[in-house]
Amino acid sequence: MAALVGSIVGVSILRYATGPSPGLLHELSLRLYYIPILAGAYWYGVRGGLIVACVSSVAYVNHVSGLARAPDTGRLAEVVVFLLIGLSVGLLASAQQRVTQRYRVAAATLETTNAQLRESHEQILRMDRLTTLGEVATGLAHEIRHPLASIGGAIEIIEARARADSPEAEFSRLAMAEVRRLDRLVWEFLRYARPHAPELRLTPLHDVVAQSIALLRVEAERAHVTLDVHSTATDVEVSIDPLQIEQVLLNVILNAIQATPPGGRVVVREALDDRDVSVEVIDEGPGIATDHLSSIFRPFFTTRDTGTGLGLAIAHRIVMSHEGRLEVARTSPRGTCFRISFPVGAPRGSNCEPSDAVIRV
Q: In this structure, are residues 327 and 334 in contact, taking their beta carbons and an 8 Å threshold?
């Protein structure tokens, strides 16, 4: 606004300098008042246009009334023109700003819709892959697990007949360890590809968290990691399958313990917002690389040499079947926070009836 006032002062000085006699420069200086009026209306709308037009009119009228001769009506009509220009351009500028704002809102809405569509498309693709895995799982169970059982039985016979300190006994133990590892891998794959439908019932989520923490205390002590629990939602009930959600928590918390260096700390925090109850698992590990974030919930993706890459994939699928969310809330070189969220009470379409202990939000 200061620049506009300065331009009006400059035009007024130019008019006084050119004198009262008609001339090209003197007449041109009058039209120069239009420039700050147009700029004020364009930048600040109707109010800005009228304010600048009034200031220009005062400066112009003072100049006209200060002349020796009486001002004619044509000169005074310029004041009306100033006001009309400020008003009309201000109205047009305000209309343009409203249109621009609507366009920005529409563009933001469209971007949000596109993001939701992309997420839905990715979920459909994921479900297609899971369906394929489910079909493969049946054949895999017959083609791999039964031969593994036969191989394991043969190795046990060889180990039983071999001397305890013989090479045969040592090789038998190594072979049996590999057979058991393969059997565990196949079993986890089958559990991922053919999950059981959750048996939903209203359960205090805090009880499931406490049970999971109790089971992992020994593992944390063995890794020299402190396991802390903070809860502000101890009475909140959610519609879950307790055993499946316990499996989810065990996977996520165990990953956090394994990622945290000795002497570090893993924090498990329960919280309640307007609609959901969540469990955050925060470690002090090296974080997740940016190019790995899109892959951590995919089956068989792992950064550990001994990992199967199915733990988080199984956990993600279980949480999705509960209408919940499992996500990486934040990650940095100082640690990662996984957040598991569930809707409070009975989900839509559920036959569960909320009990008196449910906190309704």
A: no
For residue 343, give the nearest of 328, 326, 322 by alpha carbon.
322
| Strand 226-231, strand 335-343: pairing | unpaired
Reported residue count of the chain is 361
Helix, strand or coil, per DSSP, at residue 347: coil
CATH number, position 295: 3.30.565.10
Look up the pTM and report it: 0.50
Domain count, the chain: 3
| pLDDT at residue 23, rounded to an integer | 61
For residues 45 and 51, give the distance between their C-alpha atoms in angstroms, rounded to a whole number.
10
pLDDT (tens digit per residue) in 87-124: 888 888 888 888 888 888 888 888 888 888 888 888 78
The answer to whether position 79 is within a domain reads: yes
Question: What stretches in the chain show pLDDT beneath 70?
Answer: 1-2, 5, 8-9, 11-31, 60-76, 130-131, 133-142, 189-195, 233-234, 305-308, 346-361
**Alpha carbons 308 and 168: distance in angstroms, whole number:** 29
User: CA-based angle 239:240:242, to the nearest 5?
Assistant: 135
Q: Which two tokens stand for residue 228?
A: 């802390």
- Domain that residue 63 falls in: 2-100
